[in-house]
Amino acid sequence: MTKKTPLVVDVLTLFPGMFKGPFEESLMGRAQQSKLVDVRIHNLRQWSDDERHAKVDDRPFGGGAGMVLQPEPIYRALKSLGALKKTKSKPWVIYLSPQGTVLKQKLAQQLVKRRHLVLICGHYEGIDERVMAWVDEEISIGDFVLTGGELPAMVAWTEPA
User: Fold this and answer.
1) Cβ count within 10 A of residue 143
2) Pairing assessment for the beta strands 116-121 and 92-102 based on DSSP bridges
3) pLDDT tens digit string along 61-114?
4) Which residues contact 49 (CB under 8 A, 6 or more apart)?
5) Between β-strands 68-69 and 57-58, what pairing exists: parallel, antiparallel or unpaired?
6) pLDDT band at 46 (very low <50, low <70, confident <90, very high)
7) How much is the pLDDT for 90?
8) Is 142 left (phi over 0), alpha (psi -120 to 50) or beta?
9) Which residues 6+ apart lie within 8 Å of 43 measured at CB?
10) Is residue 101 a contact partner of residue 138, using CB atoms and an 8 Å limit?
11) Looking at the domain that runs over 7-11+25-157, which CATH code has it been given?
């Protein structure tokens, strides 16, 4: 019997503390203890080039209201996670947004087969549109407004398919 490689889920977020309970308790906690899934929560601010404030947001490049996540910290994060490689083994990058394909069981089962996912949790007005060049799939958990991408990440991955 061969040992199955765990599903790796890297989550890029501004609020890593939000994931403590949902990913450490219940089924996800047991799945991680059993090495079926390896969830890694990353504070996007660690890739900021602003040493003083770790700023990762700015006004939209093309203009518009509000603030968006800058592309540079996301680029550095994706590069460090191997998600910008042009190989078959590169992680599948998902941006969680209301505009994405609605996550249903069939899609979840397809995603789990990829074995390494990177979830980008948007905030403010979203992410700089230039980031979409590095995104493989945009996914939504429904047609409603939330505070950011953290809650969809928790909903989508609190039970391995």
Assistant:
1) 8
2) parallel
3) 676 777 888 899 999 999 999 999 888 889 999 999 888 999 998 998 898 888
4) 72, 73
5) antiparallel
6) very high
7) 94
8) left
9) 13, 14, 16
10) yes
11) 3.40.1280.10
**Whats the size of the chain, residue-wise?**
161
> For the residues of 83-111, what is the DSSP string, one character each?
TT--STTSPEEEEEEEEEEEP-HHHHHHH
SS3 64: coil
Nearest Cα to Cα of residue 138 among 112, 100, 108, 104: 100
Residue 125 CA: distances (Å) to CA of 41, 121, 132? 22, 12, 14
Six-digit token string for 37 = 């899934």
**Would you tell me how many other CB atoms lie within 10 Å of the CB of residue 142?**
10
Residue 75 CB contacts under 8 Å (≥ 6 apart), including other chains = 84, 131, 134
Quote the tokens at residue 24.
């450490």
Ranges of each domain in the chain: 7-11+25-157
How far apart, in whole angstroms, are the C-alpha atoms of residue 158 and residue 161? 9
